[in-house]
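pasting for ref
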Amino acid sequence: MSGFSHIPVLRDEAVALLAPRAGGVYLDGTFGGGGYAKAILDSATCSLFAIDRDPAAIARGAEMRGAYNGRLVILEGRISKVFELLNAAGVGSLDGAVFDLGVSSYQIDDPARGFSFRQDGPLNMQMGSSEKTAATLVNFCSESELADILYTFGEEKASRRIAKAIVERRAAQKFATTADLAGVIRSVVRPDKSGIDPATRSFQALRIAVNDELGDIEAALAQSASLLAPGGRLVVVSFHSLEDRLVKRFFAQVSGRAPGASRHDPAGMAGTQKAAFKLLTGRPVTAGEAELRANPRARSAKLRAVERLAA
């Protein structure tokens, strides 16, 4: 089991909020390196269905599966297909679900996957099968399309300047590697006081666009929440504001904490719908000092959780 020594961010806090119990059925929607799955299965004699779109993660799961005597089932697919994947596996109800969003350390640390600007590799960024790669976007999208991607998914203020530099450079030579693209971005964006690499937001934006991550998250939240039995919990760890905003908004809606409709809006005449969930985290749970020292990636992580109420 040496391949599963990876410790995911906020693992202990997430499992504590999930509160697995003997005989329960749970979902790990983002299997990755198996860290959450192992912690859940070790905490109770429960069953766990784990989803990942990455063939490399599925292969890691196949090795891990044998250690849990049939209690771990690995499903290959996107989290936007929770209904479909669990239905095919004969699962119609869950006692809890957890999602560790974003890119996994395994993907970042492998130069061949093309996720990181810190190591040179092909400009790929595919988490699984996808019609496009990062190279497809930077080499063939129009300047305005590129600027929109960088601004919308990376919240990059210099999106137009970066897009212009990319289009000018690709006219002479198409982009093929992560180092090449990062170099062009750094040539037009200076480092700020935060110390964050100037290429960070652009690489995030391209990765999200390639994999339709935000669309997947919205679908996964709705589908997994609807499958929860009374008392079942949905626990989500996000790593940037776009992810966290989706989670926060969804949890506010299902727990009856969304802003009320305007009195001038006819929809407001219908009254408020009874909350189906209880919010378990008034404020997001964040990493403590010890975890931050051990894993700098934890600095941006936010954990939120809700619990299904009785009908």
